[in-house]
Design brief:
It comes from Salix suchowensis. The protein is about 55% helix and about 0% strand. The protein is mainly alpha-helical.
């Protein structure tokens, strides 16, 4: 990791999108909460998007779609509906 990237990672430590959900209850970090944060950083590197509920929900949906058990996979309509719920509100186009 470059020095600049390392500085960025350190600066974002503790940021809400990087914190494991269980930290709200446990109030203490451990190696598993660190691995959660690492996973979010890897997702950010792969997607170029900052962490947050939208990114994590999209990943969960994608993993549900590729479940090894066909019966456990959602219907296409369910996937579209969940994507609609996840997508951010689009700003209205500026008038010319």
């Amino acid at each position: 990791m470059t020095a600049a990237a390392n500085t960025n990672v350190i600066a974002t430590a503790g940021t809400l999108g990087y914190r494991a959900p269980e930290l709200a209850k446990l109030k203490s970090a451990n190696t598993k909460t660190d691995v959660y944060s690492l996973g979010v950083i890897i997702l950010e590197l792969l997607t170029g998007k900052s962490p947050g509920d939208e990114l994590l929900n999209t990943l969960k949906l994608a993993l549900h779609c590729v479940d090894p058990t066909p019966a456990a996979r959602p219907e296409a309509e369910q996937v579209v509906q969940q994507l609609e719920e996840i997508k951010p509100e689009l700003a209205p186009a500026a008038a010319d």
